[in-house]
């Protein structure tokens, strides 16, 4: 078998890099670099959002050397020229995939849009060619569906026999299997993609023992971290490491490599600077000293924001969002660990009224006063950025969350056992996802419309499905959160009580199927909802992707994936 790690058909292996999301399409040039044509990408599906969902481009101050900045501009021009050359047309879709997997496609929005348009218009003609490859069709399907094109999974019929099974010769096509596996996770409930996932998974697993060390590692990474459901920044870093090993020395390949390295390094410097600021805010706030029972995990809280809204133009937004995330954890601990039923009832009433807190115990009063200040600060930030003040909607989101916490507290205090569906309905709200998405909605400049009301009310799949994924994954029972002594029950537990004949393993399998179904619903909303900004939709997916990092405990009750994520994206990986 040939080496599937080669990218350009000459240099870039089409199955070697993973793709980056819509949020990577951002209005940004490092420092004061001037982009000759389009610093904002042109996506004919989402163009009208760029004027209200981006702020002034962030200006890096870490690298002011004119030679350094000139080199960045030169690299962008070389890649742009390569994408526009007719001689590169046969490799164009492969290069687009590489740019997306490395998270630098936002520099080339106009060129990529033209390439995808051409690919979409020619796809069915390509399917009729006698020598068409599974890799090519799977790659085009993935890129087009990610970009919002209406492309059917029936394109894979070309590779199936009369029995509706993938042709046997494809079981030896490792490059094609990797591309097919990637594509299968863009499922919206399609039988074809279930078949594709089962076929590609089975044969990739069996191929590992016959591959060399590096190819085998690629296949294992593909199986363990499927592209669509994994964190884009983490995947980009992984593939950047491989690029350093395998790229050839032609100008286009080296320019892509250098741009990716620069993007990663500048973002890392920015994230480190933000983390210092949020640590200082948390220390100055003083709640860790007053609420000694509560979790003190500011790095973990910042990771949610860093993941949901990556990129330099959202620096201030991440800081504000992290403050809200921290209070979700703190208030959760008040309900789970410290408060008695009477205190919790009073606290919930105070949150709902957003007024006098004098009757609260001291620790609750301190939390509420700090929460009011933070929420007012976020509302003021939104007003300064977009000219609207969402304070009433933000207050209501906190009331909704605390009401859901209160339901669980009453169940526990009264020794009530809810049925699984009742527990899950409330658990979707108490996960905190609804509150985060409401804050994100306004931080990104959305105004209240019929569409955004669905978000505010928690009825959108972009909220409910992400929340369900988080709640169910957490409830699979792999471990309790660090230093938490409270008890919430779990969906798995209540499902087995509702179904006495169901074993624990069968209940877990049922829960995993619900997670898969939630991903399919989330995909459908993500790919075809054109009324919400791509940044908001990507933030929803990023939160769902982060769940596996935050709750994937090993046998030692540790989080190895989260530790690897932190070291690669925030502190190390140079």
From TrEMBL:
Keywords: Lyase, Magnesium, Metal-binding. Residues 284-521 form the Terpene synthase metal-binding domain. The keyword Lyase applies. It holds the Pfam family Terpene_synth_C. Residues 61-211 form the Terpene synthase N-terminal domain. GO terms for molecular function: magnesium ion binding; terpene synthase activity. Its cofactor is Mg(2+). InterPro entries: Isoprenoid_synthase_dom_sf (IPR008949), Terpene_cyclase-like_1_C (IPR034741), Terpene_synth_N (IPR001906), Terpene_synth_N_sf (IPR036965), Terpene_synthase-like (IPR050148), Terpene_synthase_metal-bd (IPR005630), Terpenoid_cyclase/PrenylTrfase (IPR008930). One of its GO terms (biological process) is terpenoid biosynthetic process. The keyword Lipoprotein does not apply. This is Terpene synthase 14.
């Amino acid at each position: 078998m040939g080496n599937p790690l080669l990218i350009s058909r000459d240099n870039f292996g089409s199955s070697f890099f993973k793709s980056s999301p819509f949020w990577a399409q951002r209005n940004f040039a490092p420092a004061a670099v001037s982009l000759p044509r389009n610093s904002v990408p042109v996506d004919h599906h989402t163009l009208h959002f760029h004027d209200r969902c981006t702020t002034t481009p962030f200006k890096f101050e870490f690298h002011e050397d004119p030679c350094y900045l000139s080199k960045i501009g030169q690299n962008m021009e070389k890649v742009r020229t390569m994408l526009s050359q007719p001689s590169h047309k046969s490799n164009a879709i492969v290069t687009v995939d590489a740019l997306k997997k490395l998270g630098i496609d936002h520099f080339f929005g106009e060129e990529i849009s033209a390439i995808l348009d051409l690919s979409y218009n020619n796809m069915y003609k390509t399917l009729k060619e006698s020598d068409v490859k599974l890799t090519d069709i799977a790659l085009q399907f993935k890129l087009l569906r990610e970009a919002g094109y209406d492309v059917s999974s029936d394109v894979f019929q070309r590779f199936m026999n009369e029995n509706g099974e993938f042709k046997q010769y494809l079981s030896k096509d490792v490059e094609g299997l990797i591309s097919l596996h990637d594509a299968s996770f863009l499922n919206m409930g399609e039988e074809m993609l279930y078949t594709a996932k089962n076929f590609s998974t089975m044969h990739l697993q069996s191929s590992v023992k016959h591959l060399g060390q590096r190819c085998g590692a690629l296949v294992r990474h593909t199986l363990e971290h499927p592209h669509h459901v994994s964190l884009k920044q983490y995947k980009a870093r992984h593939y950047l490491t491989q690029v350093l090993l395998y790229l050839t020395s032609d100008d286009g390949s080296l320019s892509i490599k250098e741009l990716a390295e620069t993007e990663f390094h500048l973002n890392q410097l920015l994230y480190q600077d933000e983390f210092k600021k949020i640590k200082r805010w948390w220390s100055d706030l003083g709640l860790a000293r007053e609420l000694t029972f509560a979790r003190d995990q500011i790095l973990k809280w910042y990771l949610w924001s860093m993941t949901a809204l990556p990129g330099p133009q959202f620096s201030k937004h991440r800081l504000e969002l992290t403050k809200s995330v921290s209070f979700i954890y703190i208030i959760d601990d008040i309900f789970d660990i410290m408060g008695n039923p009477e205190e919790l009832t009073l606290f919930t009433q105070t949150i709902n009224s957003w007024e006098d807190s004098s009757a609260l115990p001291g620790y609750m009063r301190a939390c509420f006063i700090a929460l009011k200040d933070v929420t007012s600060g976020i509302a003021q930030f939104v007003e300064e950025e977009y000219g609207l003040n969402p304070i009433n909607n933000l207050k209501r989101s906190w009331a909704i969350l605390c009401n859901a916490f209160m339901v669980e507290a009453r169940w526990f205090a009264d020794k009530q056992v809810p049925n699984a569906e009742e527990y899950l309905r409330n658990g979707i709200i108490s996960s905190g996802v609804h509150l985060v998405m409401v804050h994100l909605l306004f931080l990104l400049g959305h105004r209240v419309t019929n569409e955004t009301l669905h978000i505010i009310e928690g009825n959108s799949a972009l909220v409910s499905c992400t929340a369900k994924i988080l709640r169910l994954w957490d409830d699979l029972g792999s471990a309790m959160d660090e230093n938490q002594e409270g008890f919430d029950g779990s969906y798995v537990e209540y499902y087995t009580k509702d179904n006495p004949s169901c074993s624990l393993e069968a209940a877990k399998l049922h829960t995993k199927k619900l997670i898969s179904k939630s991903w399919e619903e989330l995909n459908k909303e993500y790919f075809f909802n054109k009324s919400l900004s791509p940044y908001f939709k990507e933030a929803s997916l990023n939160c769902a992707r982060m769940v596996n990092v935050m709750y994937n405990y090993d046998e030692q009750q540790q989080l190895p994936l989260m530790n690897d994520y932190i070291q690669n994206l925030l502190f190390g990986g140079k």
